Amino acid sequence: MAKIKLTKGELKRQRDALKQYKRYLPTLQLKKQQLQLEILHQGHTLEEKKSAAAAKKEVVETWAGLLSDPAIDMRAWVTSKEVITGVKNIAGVDLPLFSEVHFKPVEYDLFTMPLWVDGAILELRALFSMHAEIEVLEKAMKILKQELRITTQRVNLFEKVKIPEAEEIIRLIKIYMGDQMTNAVGRSKIAKRKIELSVLEGVGA
Fold first, then answer.
1. Which of 21, 73, 135, 171 ranks highest by number of CB atoms within 10 Å?
2. Within a domain: residue 95?
3. Can you give the pLDDT at residue 62?
4. How many domains, in total, are found in the chain?
5. What is the CATH number of the domain that holds 94?
């Protein structure tokens, strides 16, 4: 703790600061709770998406051998053109929100390609979209955890440092001012007594 100015001005400044800390702390605590709840929610969603992607991958692997045909190059048909995301705000934090994946147009000869190609393209694009959504969720989770870390630090700063420090300074200033007042009263009484004695001595003379 830095050197304390034991003055009325400092007392007012510390009281004002304490009032601000106590007003701001509940907002920080609420934000911390909202972030914790959102992390839990996002965590559950992320696990569900990963499980769905794993299940979809197993389905794809049952016929993935068909893709070994050199005449069929599926890569161009499942290449994404753009991953579309939006934004949602949680406790004042902007998070990416998955919307959809835009794929490049499919161009192939319907008469020469096997019938299963249409279904394969849909399945692979669905799998690719799932992975894209998982990436967006993981990015959002990273942002949330970073924001929670910062918010928790601020809550601890207010609860464990700023508020106790201000309360202690106010207490010390009050004690000092109380001592000063007591001393002033004592000096006043001594001065009054001396005056009275002087008057009495003058009268006696």
1. 21
2. yes
3. 79
4. 1
5. 1.10.287.3240
Which pTM does this prediction carry? 0.77
Q: Token pair of 172, please?
A: 């010390």
**pLDDT value, residue 159:** 95
CA angle, residues 100, 102, 103, in degrees to nearest 5: 135
Q: How much is the pLDDT for 142?
A: 97
* CA gap 192, 119 in Å, rounded: 106
User: What pLDDT does residue 106 have?
Assistant: 75
CB distance 60 to 130 below 8 Å: no
**Averaged pLDDT in 10-residue chunks for the chain of 205 residues:** 79 93 95 96 96 91 69 68 91 94 77 73 89 96 97 96 94 86 69 63 56
Determine, yes or no, domain membership for 100: yes
CA 26 to chain centroid, in Å, comes to 14
Domain enclosing residue 23, as ranges: 8-64+81-192
Tokens read off for 84:
């579309």
Task: Evaluate whether residue 197 is within a structural domain.
Answer: no
